[in-house]
Automatic annotation (TrEMBL):
InterPro entries membership: RuBisCO, RuBisCO_lsu_fd_N, RuBisCO_lsu_N_sf
Gene Ontology CC terms: chloroplast
Family: Belongs to the RuBisCO large chain family. Type I subfamily.
Record flagged with keyword Cytoplasm: no
Location within or outside the cell: Plastid, Chloroplast
GO biological process: photorespiration; reductive pentose-phosphate cycle
SUPFAM superfamilies: RuBisCO, large subunit, small (N-terminal) domain
Claim: ATP-binding is one of the keywords in the record: no
This protein's encoding gene: rbcL
Lineage top rank: taxon: Eukaryota
Protein name from the UniProt record: Ribulose bisphosphate carboxylase large chain
Source species of the chain: Ziziphus jujuba
Keywords noted in UniProt: Calvin cycle, Carbon dioxide fixation, Chloroplast, Lyase, Monooxygenase, Oxidoreductase, Photorespiration, Photosynthesis, Plastid
EC number: 4.1.1.39
Length: 151
């Protein structure tokens, strides 16, 4: 039961948290709080089995937290689940690690019918650890022939 550990509506987000918004469609019979908590768990520290290292680290320090749920207007059984992740979960400078951790594991979770990632907010302190294109942005724009807009 992930809800007891990972659903924390009283949590106040920090400037250093990575914030994700998922559109959650739970399977029939799965409460939205459990579905949101499962997303937070499965994309951070949750696992289906006991791990011997559980006693060596602080779950509270590393766990993702579903801190909010809102019904999607006009959609039956769909919710926006807001999940906060501590920066310590992620390797600095690795976009691959970030996205693999947040979206790589949870999309196969059986309690959910659908789980698109709607929004992601990354703290400036973390984005500064990314090196960017090896040749600079202008070379990348020239290669792609894309100017005056985001790539």
């Amino acid at each position: 039961d992930y809800k007891l550990t990972y659903y924390t509506p009283e949590y106040e987000t920090k400037d250093t948290d990575i914030l994700a918004a998922f559109r959650v469609t739970p399977q029939p019979g799965v409460p939205p709080e459990e579905a949101g908590a499962a997303v937070a768990a499965e994309s951070s520290t949750g696992t289906w089995t006991t791990v011997w290292t559980d006693g060596l680290t602080s779950l509270d320090r590393y766990k993702g937290r579903c801190y909010g749920l809102e019904p999607v207007a006009g959609e039956e059984n769909q919710y926006i689940a807001y999940v906060a992740y501590p920066l310590d979960l992620f390797e600095e400078g690795s976009v691959t690690n970030l996205f693999t951790s947040i979206v790589g594991n949870v999309f196969g979770f059986k309690a959910l019918r659908a789980l698109p990632l709607e929004d992601l907010q990354i703290p400036t302190s973390y984005t500064k650890t990314f090196q960017g294109p090896p040749h600079g942005i202008q070379v990348e724009r020239n290669k792609l022939n894309k100017y005056g807009r985001p790539l």
